[in-house]
TrEMBL record:
<feature type="domain" description="Pyrroline-5-carboxylate reductase catalytic N-terminal">
    <location>
        <begin position="9"/>
        <end position="101"/>
    </location>
</feature>
<feature type="binding site">
    <location>
        <position position="61"/>
    </location>
    <ligand>
        <name>NADPH</name>
    </ligand>
</feature>
<keyword id="KW-0028">Amino-acid biosynthesis</keyword>
<dbReference type="GO" id="GO:0005737">
    <property type="term" value="C:cytoplasm"/>
</dbReference>
<comment type="pathway">
    <text>Amino-acid biosynthesis; L-proline biosynthesis; L-proline from L-glutamate 5-semialdehyde: step 1/1.</text>
</comment>
<protein>
    <recommendedName>
        <fullName>Pyrroline-5-carboxylate reductase</fullName>
        <ecNumber>1.5.1.2</ecNumber>
    </recommendedName>
</protein>
<comment type="similarity">
    <text>Belongs to the pyrroline-5-carboxylate reductase family.</text>
</comment>
<comment type="function">
    <text>Catalyzes the reduction of 1-pyrroline-5-carboxylate (PCA) to L-proline.</text>
</comment>
<dbReference type="Pfam" id="PF14748">
    <property type="entry name" value="P5CR_dimer"/>
</dbReference>
<dbReference type="InterPro" id="IPR036291">
    <property type="entry name" value="NAD(P)-bd_dom_sf"/>
</dbReference>
<keyword id="KW-0560">Oxidoreductase</keyword>
<feature type="binding site">
    <location>
        <begin position="13"/>
        <end position="18"/>
    </location>
    <ligand>
        <name>NADP(+)</name>
    </ligand>
</feature>
<dbReference type="InterPro" id="IPR029036">
    <property type="entry name" value="P5CR_dimer"/>
</dbReference>
<keyword id="KW-0641">Proline biosynthesis</keyword>
<dbReference type="GO" id="GO:0055129">
    <property type="term" value="P:L-proline biosynthetic process"/>
</dbReference>
<dbReference type="InterPro" id="IPR000304">
    <property type="entry name" value="Pyrroline-COOH_reductase"/>
</dbReference>
<dbReference type="GO" id="GO:0004735">
    <property type="term" value="F:pyrroline-5-carboxylate reductase activity"/>
</dbReference>
Amino acid sequence: MTVSLEQSTIGFIGAGNMAGAIARGLVKKGHDPQRIIMSNRSSGKLEALQQELGIRITTNNQDVCRSANVVLLSVKPQMMKDALAGLDFTSVDCAISVAAGLPVAKLIEFTAEQVAIIRSMPNTPSIELCGATGLYASQSVREQHQRAAEYVFGAVGEFAWVDDEGLMDTVTALAGSSPAYFFRFMETLIDAGVKQGMDQDTARKLVVQSALGAATLIKNHPDIAISERRIQVTSPNGTTAAALDSLEESGIATMAEAAVNAAVKRGKELSQS
């Protein structure tokens, strides 16, 4: 008998920040916390999450595999092999990795080819349930497994599938790493405002709210091109035009492309190491 996603048990091997964020999102979405089970080597994080969310906890990874229909592999990449060693996944529908850089081939090896594997790359805004997650399905993944992944990551934001595993490095560059790019640009704008004589708290409030507003406008009106929004804000010969001219002269497009290229290159190096 097929179990509905709402009635399925979702397990986590590893209780790190991303596992906690996803569990919170699922509970907020209405998933029964007693149908969430999480394991970890130490009990401190587990007990805190149990008290907060009412989920089931264990220090035995096999308990998760025995209980869950879907298992999220949420330990650090360098710990994955040891965490999965000897586990029996035969009763698990699919396993979803949230470990950056670990290719599907390695995950299949670590799980002894017992279970369908999905690779994911969520980002830190998932903590606030506004994350962006890239997903890649191995050859053994079926439609019901994809729907399970969408159910999980839809609880913490939006998701997109890629059909080439090599693009997961680009997902990392555009989603996994990009919050740091935006944070850095916000830092520089705030510092520039302070240098103009504004106090830091006021500069921060104006910059942060403007960034949120700009992103909200783009998200809520997907039919309007980002370039069109930029043009709407940019009066000819005005202040915005002067600022944008300065950014273009500084090579903003070249810098962005170089940053993405650097992240992709480093991702490929880490995957091969």
